[in-house]
Amino acid sequence: MGLEDTLGRLGISGNMSRVYLAAIENGPGPVSALIARTKLPKATVYDAVSKLESEGLLERRDAVGKRCIVAHDPSIMLEQIEARRQMVGEMLPELRALFNAAKGKPNIRFYEGSEGIRTVMLDSLTCRDGTLYCTYAMDEIMEAPGLDWMEGYAAERISKGIWMKVMRSRSHDRKDIWPSDRKAKREVRFAPEHVPLGLTIQIYDNRVAIVSAKKEYYGLIIESEEFATMLRTFFSVIWAMSEPTQFIKDT
Fold this sequence. Notes:
By secondary structure, the chain is α+β, with helices and mostly antiparallel strands. Helices cover about 45% and strands about 20% of the residues. It has helices spanning about 5-10, 15-25, 30-40, 40-55, 75-105, 115-125, 140-145, 145-160, 225-240, and strands spanning about 60-65, 65-70, 105-110, 130-135, 165-170, 185-190, 200-205, 205-210, 220-225, 245.
């Protein structure tokens, strides 16, 4: 396979590949040199130069009394491919979610480590229906993402007007913090002793976010209307059995 064919497979096809190869072979020089070497019409060469410049493969420089065309090192193509790969990687979860939604399939996103746990927690701030239904394993949350980070998370949640209904287990609490608080848009209940809540779970819209911060150290987002509805039903049943707490007085 020749260079022109290979460049074509990389998206630098037809006249663009001919002009780019000519610019490499000629070295820095005027557009007239590229026209002479490629034997292409002037307008065609100028159009190819503009496209190659936008791709970062050519550069127009002002020389003494004339405009000079300079070909960039071909290794820049590797950098561009890596940049595009990163962009695709960042978009992939959302693109897969759209694809799976169109196919009627649940979408599952898995994240590892402390950064992944924060990513999962932050996704709940996209809640559209105005209420998060949560179980908080407080001993795990204190490990990751940590109390300082959670304070910032809470401030952003409040600013977005999102309420939380939170169930906790006294056996998993290590600090007497985050009570029921209307200003903080948070209502807290304690689950019965025979219902230990060892995972942090957030239910919102058609999603369920799960965080295991202490042992397995992962975050998981499941996007499924059926699954979210079922978990919300389970939450309501346990919520009704749980011990309400007093709201702190507004000051």
